[in-house]
Specification:
10 helices; eight-stranded parallel sheet; binds pyridoxal-5'-phosphate; alpha/beta; single chain
Amino acid sequence: MLRENYRDVEEKVAAACARSGRKRSEVTLIAVSKTKPAEMIQEIYDLDQRDFGENKVQELTGKIDLLPSDIRWHLIGHLQQNKVKYIAGRVCLIHSVDSLRLAETISREALKHSCTIPILIEVNVAGEESKFGVSVEETLPLVEAAAQLPGIEIRGLMTIAPYVTDPEENRPVFKKLRELSVDIAGKNINNVTMSVLSMGMTGDYEVAIEEGATMVRVGTGIFGARDYGAQK
Ligand SMILES: *Cc1c(COP(=O)(O)O)cnc(C)c1O
């Protein structure tokens, strides 16, 4: 089941790349393994998947200890300042930076651990009240301020698009994030590249790829539905 799901997603990613004239190597598929056990992650790992995403620090660090050390772990969920210390030097990218205070904390922890931490700025493109992320207008000021901090590298932007039944509805959201990233790249800010666009989840990753996503975060499509009840 897991293997078939994974192959199916991989095929759809490749097809979306082909449709939009992009190389498959331009898009990183992140397998979002939150709530799923290490054995399932290992199964996907054995199919040569190396990028995995988690949204909770405690769950992430627990899994890092159980699984192969060449996995690239992505922290994709909301991050509390007091938890940054547990992941400094252990994740390849933090996708969810949405305040200068959080960027400052990451910077401090990076210096303590003598490492550089790559980050993305999370943008709430659709302006949904229930979501984290800065507004489109706040993005450039945050990028400019965070770019001054040592120990972090701003690699691009991330968004969580609204939950929709027709993925086409999110096309304008993805377009907007891409435009914003092109605008910011044009400012040539020191310490900032806009090489990563992290957008698209199970329901809409194909559209996101067509609109320029360089990372898609797919959970349910690979691992099946999440059972939060069983977690507690
Ligand atoms: C859970 C999660 C995903 C994956 O969601 P699916 O709809 O299961 O693919 C992607 N991004 C973030 C930030 C998430 O928390």
